[in-house]
Amino acid sequence: MLEFEKKVLLSEPEYRFLKENRYRAGRTAVQVNHYYDTDDFELSRQGITCRIREKNGVCTATVKAHQQTWADCSVEHSRSVKDRYDDLLFRDMKLRHQGSLETVRTIYFPHKGISVMLDKNSYLGTTDYELELEYVRDAEVLARKELDGIISDLVRSRIAANEKMLRLRIGQGGNKSARFFRRKAEAAVQRSGAGPAIRSE
Known about the structure:
By secondary structure, this protein is an alpha+beta fold. The protein has 6 helices and 8 strands.
């Protein structure tokens, strides 16, 4: 499945403003991603994510790869699994469970083919905030307009001081998996003085 998305890391005030103002009607749920990789994080360094996601009592195993053809696109293959521990698929790939990331997600559907997600992520002693805008390819123009409206609201309310700097943050900082493995590598460096390099996109 092809997935088109735009991501922006938010400050806590930006996250709270959008959740309490622009997206008050959104619905909130908790999901947990359990990540798998080699011990030297080889897949993460190649931009490939292997995870089991727990959400609403359902577990899904996914292999996701960043697509080079379109900057905002990834290719995803998923299948249902019995529970969080049903990881034979990944163990057969010689991968190990590397840890988990919990997301409190508020989701809103402003237009057909577009979903906006406000995420609070907790992992490895870290908390960050993120806006994800997912859309089908035919809805790209509307998705850009939705993102423009978000940026306008943040700047007009003075929660974000500078529109140019806010736009520069789009697509920066890496996805959840990249941030998780970067933090894990940093912790390994702190413990031993060396560790694997992690790709940031």
